[in-house]
Specification:
disordered C terminus, alpha+beta, 10-stranded antiparallel sheet, 285 residues, 25% strand
Length: 285
């Protein structure tokens, strides 16, 4: 089972316990960073927001079925007080636990059902190459996104395209889509940029990022850019776990060169994932 599948199974089996992201990552066999990135890519949710919504969904179901003791429902959802549970429940559904119990149905609530991994999203990828990437200085436009709001990234590219070729100190014609500064809530910075000799100063319209020299696994996306999400899904949920490497806590990026036609959105895009070398296997005696 892949790391995300293990995380989903673990959470579904441990609703009533006060489990942490570290607990879920350990059960999944990967780091917090790896799990946060792969889980968000696969499900569109952060790990802990999924857990919270699933707990509240099961609580809502119990209440609609007439659970007599709301505090027991709260404890089963890993809330230690009636007040904390009621506040979270009302924030999620716009109704109090008492109101849902009184109405006796869930017709006006949107409850998150258990997610099952969709194997149809897995695509065939060429074997990645291992690359020692040099230091990069990138200038461009950036925004803060989450797995729920990343639909805004294409419009960021539209705003950036007129800058290409007009940036002082630009090096070459390659473009980069860089993900960095991810956190446990599923938010991350995304930058559209090009390589430059020197980073822009704080007063410039464009922002800059320095990416240190790093070891990468480089994957290739083929076809229209609209299908890149399936490639990314496959990388984080199959190809990377099977590679023996773990993602490093460093920016990863898409590289667009002359193999990609920005006008049509078709071609090939490289996806560079920073990795740590696999741990050596201890010899058997």
């Amino acid at each position: 089972m892949d790391p995300v599948g293990k995380a989903l199974w673990y959470m579904e089996c441990h609703f009533a316990k006060a489990i942490t992201l570290d607990d879920i990552a350990e059960a999944s066999g990967v780091s917090r960073f790896n799990l946060s990135r792969s889980f968000g890519t696969a499900t569109g949710h952060t790990v802990m927001s999924y857990l919270r919504r699933r707990r509240l969904a099961e609580a809502a179901r119990a209440l609609a079925e007439g659970a007599p003791d709301i505090m027991t429902v709260a404890l089963d959802a890993a809330y230690s007080s009636h007040e904390a549970f009621s506040r979270a429940f009302r924030d999620q559904y716009g109704l109090t636990p008492e109101q849902v119990r009184a109405q006796g149905h869930l017709n006006n609530l949107t409850c998150l059902e258990p997610i099952r991994m969709d194997e149809s999203l897995i695509v065939e990828l060429d074997a990645p190459r291992l690359e020692r990437g040099r230091e990069l200085r990138i200038a461009g436009l950036s925004g803060r996104y989450s797995f729920e709001t990343n639909q805004g990234i294409p419009s960021l590219w539209q705003r950036f395209m007129p800058h290409i070729g007009n940036i002082p100190g630009q090096v070459g014609r390659k473009s980069y889509g860089i993900c960095s500064n991810g956190d446990d809530t599923g938010h991350f910075d995304y930058m559209c940029g090009v390589e430059v000799k020197e980073l822009p100063d704080a007063r410039a319209e464009l922002t800059g990022i320095r990416i240190p020299a790093q070891q990468y696994l480089v994957f290739l996306h083929k076809g229209h850019i609209s299908t890149i999400s399936s490639t990314v899904y496959t990388i984080w949920n199959k190809a990377l776990p099977e590679s023996g490497y773990q993602a490093a806590c460093a920016p990863d990026f898409e590289l667009y060169d002359d193999r990609f036609d920005a006008a049509t959105g078709a071609g090939e895009v490289e996806i560079w994932i920073p990795v740590k070398s696999p741990s050596p296997v201890s010899p058997t005696h």
